[in-house]
Amino acid sequence: MAGVDAMAAGGDEAGETLHVVLFPFLAFGHINPFAQLARSLLAVGGGTESTAEVDADGAELLKLALDGTRPQVEALLARLRPDVVLFDFVTPWVADAARRLGVRSARFSIFPAVSGAYFMAHGRGLYGARPTAEELASAPEGFPLSSPLSTVPTYQAAHFTHIFTSFHGMPSTHDRSVACHNACDALVIRT
């Protein structure tokens, strides 16, 4: 636990400065939480245009564009040599690049833990099975009935299906998120 306290205080156990790189998804709703995290990290120690109206297809193109930055991000990590890199839900390759450099990686979720539990529950979207709107309208098996997400309106559940949909032959948002969970050293969840 001392290591966690030291990280929260902006340094390691030997009192050295902790060097953190943040790599958000380039969408307004993701940049702000990363900026808030950066401000919080700075407060503890040491030193766009909105994508809200982009449809699901446009959001997938944004993910492809972000994937195109991989060589530059890898070069930046190699040059900066941070202690840890925090990345968003669509770029599991950041964890791979960090690992090759001996850098720790953490997947930073801008979403509450309950949404992750709802969508990432065992069986949802695994093994190529895409959940239907009807399945997404009900909470996964074992989900607390007291949760506000124990049932979801049909229109909202229908919208949630895009999370499990592949666009442009690329992995779905769900597949990318699972890959990020599997690739990182730690999960950081915004509360």
What does it look like?
There is one protein chain. The chain is α/β, with parallel strands linked by helices. It has a single domain (18-189), classed as Glycogen Phosphorylase B (Rossmann fold, 3-Layer(aba) Sandwich), CATH 3.40.50.2000. The protein is 45% helix and 9% strand. It has nine helices and four strands. The protein has helices at 2-8, 28-44, 56-67, 70-80, 92-100, 113-120, 133-136, 154-160, 173-183; strands spanning 20-23, 84-87, 104-109, 186-189. The protein has a four-stranded parallel beta sheet, with helices on one face. Helix 5 (92-100) links the parallel strand 2 (84-87) and strand 3. Helix 4 runs parallel beside helix 5 and helix 5 runs parallel beside helix 9. The chain is globular and about 50 Å long. Residues 1-10 have low confidence and may be disordered.
